[in-house]
Structures are given as C-alpha cells and as structure tokens.
Amino acid sequence: MGAGPPAAGALLEAAGAGLFDEEIPDRRDGPAVMVKLSRGAGPVVPVRRGDALGILLTAPELIEHVLVANAANYTHAQHPFRELEGQYALPGAVMLRLTREPRSGIVAADESARVFGEEAERMAEAVLRAAEDGPVEVALEAKKLVFRATVRLLFGVDASHLDAAFVRAFGFLEECWKNWPFGGPRPRPDPLWERYAAALEVHDRAAAWIVREAGLVPAEGSSPAKLRHAVVDTLFNATGGSSVTLAWTLQQLALHPEARKRVEREVGEALPAAPGVADFRRLAYTRLAVMDTLRLYPPAWSIGRRSLAEDRLGGHVVPGGTDLTIAPFALHRDPALWDRPLEWDPERFAPGRSAGRHRR
Fold first, then answer.
1. Cα angle 240, 244, 246; round to 5
2. For FRET with 130, which of 66, 257, 307, 324 sits at 20 to 30 Å CA-CA?
3. pLDDT tens readout for residues 53-69
4. Could you tell me the maximum CA-CA distance found in the chain, to the nearest angstrom?
5. Is the pLDDT reported for residue 244 higher than 50?
6. pLDDT tens digits, 12-32
7. Cβ distance 210 to 84 under 8 Å?
8. pLDDT confidence of residue 6
9. Confidence at residue 263, expressed as pLDDT on a 0 to 100 scale
C-alpha cells in the first residue's frame, strides 16, 4: 500500500513560528496579510496566530468543498441576526433573509427599495450642500444612509438624529478592535481609553432609544443590556457591507467618468419614479459595476470555518477542530484566476466574458 495523504498537523508544524514576523511588516493589515500568504504557497497554506495553528485555503475548488459540498462538516458562528428573530419589522426580516414567505417577501422587498431610495435622496441632498464648502467624506455619508434605512426597516423608527454620532463611534471602535492599543500599562488618565468608553456609550444609548421607540420594551421601562447589545450587533452586521460597497462603487464611478455616464443614463432610462425590486433587474450595466466593486473590495475580506470531523483538502488530512480561513480579498486579486486583477472593469462580468474563468 502507498503512503496516505500527509497530515495537516505536520504541514502546520513545518511552517515555523516566525511566519508573520518575518514576512509581514504589519500583521494588523489583515487583507495585505492574506494576499502575502496566499501567493505561490499552494492551495493549503499553514498559518500561525500566536500559539494557534490553522489553514488558509486559496484554491476555488477547495473553498467550494468547504462552503458548499461538505458544508455540514464546517461550523461557523450563529446567524448574526437570529437573536432578535420575531422582533424585527417584516421588511427587515426579509432583508436579513429570516422570512421567505413569497407574497410578503415581495411587498417587504419593495418597501426596502422605497426606504433606501428615500434615504439615498437625503444623502444626495446632504452631499451637495456639504460640497459647497469643500470635499465630502462620502464613506461617512454612505454609512449614515444605510444606518437610517436599516433602523427604519428593522425596527420601524426614524433614527436620523442618531446617524452621525452612531457611525463615527462605529468607525472609531472598529479601529480600536483592529489595532487594540490598550495592552500593557496605561497612563492615568488615558484619553484614548476614555474615547473608547465614550463610543461604547454612544451605541448603548442609541440602542436604548431604538428598542424603546420600537416598542420592544415598555415606554417607561429600562431595556436589558443583552437586548441593547443585540441591537448594536445587528446594526453592525446589517449596515457595514452595504455602506462599504456603496462608497467604493461611488469612488470607482468617480474615477471612471465613462462608466459613471453609463450608469446615470441607464438609471435615468430604466427606472420609474418609484421603483420596486423588479425594476432593478433592468440595470444591467449598473449591476456589473457593483459586481466588480465587490470583487475588488469584498466586505467580508476573510471568512472563518472550523472542521467538525477529519476531512481531506488538497492532498492533506485535516483533523477535526482545525480552523480554516478563506480570504475573498486575496482570491479576487489573484493573477492566476483573473485577467488584470487590480483593474476595475465591470465588463469582465458581461455575458460571454467568463470563458476560462473558474465557475466559482
């Protein structure tokens, strides 16, 4: 009998402890780390996170195996929106794919289109006013737009007076979580820590207002901390990806005037004054523009899974309990998979242009 496939544990141990320190100057830049690790290292790449060992998958066929063909063997976190199931408004439940009843789904989806359209008009007006005084922080305005629309759809309340404070606090907290500057002894007083605590308080107060206005607690009653935390987590998950994609798409359209003119012309000709979800199927080129933005700037730049039982990946035995990472950011910029991977080109997704590209 021939030798069986090598065990992933041996592969991991062979990687050495200094992988990040020697090759990656700043390990906190997660997307850059994933690109660096994935290039030329094979389809199964050992990675080290402190004392823990794991695997980075870089081949589309192995990723398909983990996420589709053998998905039952690979766990992931609980659905991020399940905590409040039954407490969302119908449009929000449909938007989060918690409700799939056909007729109500259509009505709720059209309501989502209406709400986002109204908030987009408010964003456009705010941007035009602000542009009179100088450059505009479009990413901030996009996040405020999606925050307002999401709160309306999920909880049925208008939280526009909270949008700027919530979004700015969110941005600051994300930077803290990515870089965590609070290790070791801290000075007293510590202005950075005080800002961190203040940002958390902004979100807690916003969540308390939302749950009270939405009727999730009595008007005069206090809201449980767990409920407030669930609302904040839901807003993080529901707003981040959409707003980031909107901001990057607007940036690419600004950098590519001909593409911008095509989108403007298509939207002007294809959509009625009050479009429903079905109307957006007419936006063929606009869809391509968003797709290549998602390729270059995927909101989920890293996806994690853990194996439940032993499996085989790329000729290696993967024991149960192994942590695996999939990096769409690196995959979408791989020159072995994409022609001109760093260029924004909506036409690459046009009908007839996918010949030779991996189907996944």
1. 120
2. 257
3. 789 999 999 999 999 99
4. 77
5. yes
6. 343 333 333 333 345 567 788
7. no
8. 45
9. 96
CA 305 – CA 13 distance, rounded (Å): 20
pLDDT in tens, 160-179: 999 999 999 998 898 888 77
> Which tokens belong to 78?
């609980």
Rounded Cα–Cα distance for residues 173 and 62 (Å)? 34
Count of C-beta atoms within a 10 Å radius of residue 249: 21
Q: Which strand ranges, in their side-by-side order, compose the sheet holding 303-307?
A: 44-49, 52-57, 323-326, 303-307, 74-75
Position 330 scores a pLDDT of 93
Q: What average pLDDT score do residues 66-91 get?
A: 84
Contact 64, 305 (CB under 8 A): no
Residue 298 near residue 328 (C-beta atoms within 8 A): yes
Q: In sequence order, what are the beta bridge partners of 56? A: 45, 325
Pair of tokens at residue 201: 């308080």
Give the end-to-end CA distance of the chain in Å, rounded to a whole number: 35
Contact 110, 277 (CB under 8 A): yes
